[in-house]
Amino acid sequence: MVNKLISVNRYGVVYIKRISKVLVKGLLDQYNYAFNLSLESRITMIFAPNGSGKTKLLKLINALFKNDFEEMYEIPFSEIHISFMDNCLLKVMKVLNDEESEEKNYFLYEFKDKEVFTKFKVGVVTELPPLNSITRRLPFLRRIGPKEWFDTIYNRRLGLNEILTEYESIFNINYILDDQYKEMIKSFLNIHYIETNRLHDKRISSYEMRRHSYGNEAYYDEDESYTVNLISEEIKRLISNKLNEFASVSQKLDSTFPTRLVSQMKNGKKSIDVNSIYVKLEELDAYRRKLAKIGLIDNQEDSFKSLTENLDEYIANVLALYIKDTEEKFQIFEDLERRITLFLDILNSRYKDKELQINKNDGLNIKLKNGRYLKNINQLSSGEQHTLVLNYNLLFESRPNTLVLIDEPEISLHMEWQQSFLDDLIKITKLTNLDFIVATHSPDIMNGNFEICVGLDHMESY
Fold it and tell me: Residue 222's pLDDT is what?
């Protein structure tokens, strides 16, 4: 059963929309495509020959819901229609006017939501630079009049409008839109785009740019440019945050434990099934061992079993409150534990002669079959890094009820790994409630699941 998904934002409770159909016209100035999403499975795979615009289509969908007008302006397309499963429809048209036209370029948005029809424009305005700066930016132009230049390369005269049109990429472009519409677009759905270039992080400028102490030459720390190294640091941060939260809740519960226990005893002892105490303590022991195994907490030699010696009704009442508090403390780890467990299961089923481990001090470690550890996580092969980065993105970077766009997951993956990709994706979907659009060339990624595969076939008209 496919249901609407509910989320809360600062405007109150709203429906998070799920896309049911995508239609695009004039992609790359030549292709018209339309396809339905597989709503039940939540996974849709699109395939087409190289050069058909699969990547541009994913980038366009991503840019649309992130208000990335610059990306939308750069991608050649004329219209995109997004149908939602609640029968709402969003249309965006790119309007590019002739140089002679007085009207500026713009995007025209039309949104139909039941009986409500909303229509607005996003203006595209090229910021007029100081005229004397044009020759500095384009040194092959020689100014010959108030608003006229001579192109010394092509021996031609150019007016100001011609320069702004032909060389607009070097000038600032502003996109004019009321804030209320920006918020409306973003509130439609969460979206996360996973590109093909996954191994080097785009945050290079903020992470590893350095200055030589003896000069101004810029350089960067190559280790830190690897996404896997940044992921290792991020895992440490996630664990640290949970441990701080665990410590805070523990302190609160422990400080009030005597008071709550005395109050409980004054109100009379509860009739407690002693066997249920044994069972609960066994479950807590097992969960604590699990948390330790995946690196969330330290190993502890003692066991909750020692608490059950000479168990009488009084001790059972004390332990019942203790169990309740411990369950509340451990609940803090539940979501992260499920994600880390699946992350390790997927990766370690792929890696041969090595094991991915996680701990609060190092983040990610790779233990080799001979008992040694890799010096650096970026010593993994390209394929091993790709599958690590991809699964990290899906399990830790994507919020629940997000539409995730994955471009060519088969990159650097062995055929056997490609054939397991969909099974892993299904497990992730069940845990995270994500929707996927996957662009691929690989039959092994599809692995015979043709019911969720869509070929992008060009339509002459639509």
Answer: 44
